[in-house]
Structure formats: C-alpha cells, structure tokens
Amino acid sequence: MKVTFEPDAEAELLHAVDYHNRIEPGLGDDLSGAVEEAIDLAVQFPEAWQIVEEGARRIRTKRFQYGVVYLFEGDSIHVIAVMHLRRKPGYWLDRLG
C-alpha cells in the first residue's frame, strides 16, 4: 500500500521528533518509531480505526500522546496530521480540502 504525507503532517512529525530529542536524546527517535508503527497498523487494517471527521481516521501511537490522522482511499493512505492529542483538536480539518 502506498503511504503519502501532507507536507504539514511531515513537518509536524519532524518538529515533534526534534523537540523530543532535545528533551532527551533518543526520545524523538522513539516517537518516530511509534508513529511508524501506527502507520504500519493503519496499512494492515486501514478501516479499523475511528473515523474522526469526513472519512478521516485516527490511530493513536503507543507510549506517546500523538495520533496519526489519515485518509484511506483504494490502495493508499494519505497522512493528514501527526497531532499531539492534548493540543488544538481539529486544527487539521482545513487539510481535508
């Protein structure tokens, strides 16, 4: 299955990884791994996760308070946001087009 990222979602992930690595070396890398695991699960079971808005689904990461918001269409997953679950819910809604 093809996985693509909205540019803003990719920037969010890079920012979060950098921030966590500054808190503790390696912590951001752990976050990146947790996001990758979440995306892998979404690829395996794309329709298993909660629909949060207009067909967009969200899967939570393990260990970190982050979620991956994605659209599933045919044989592809498009990541809309890599969001902290306690900050600004819904800020990504305008990315749905």
From TrEMBL:
Q: Per its UniProt record, what InterPro entries does this chain match?
A: RelE/ParE_toxin, RelE/ParE_toxin_dom_sf
Report the protein name in the record.
Answer: Type II toxin-antitoxin system RelE/ParE family toxin
Q: Sorted alphabetically, which keywords does the UniProt record give?
A: Toxin-antitoxin system
Organism the protein comes from: Humisphaera borealis
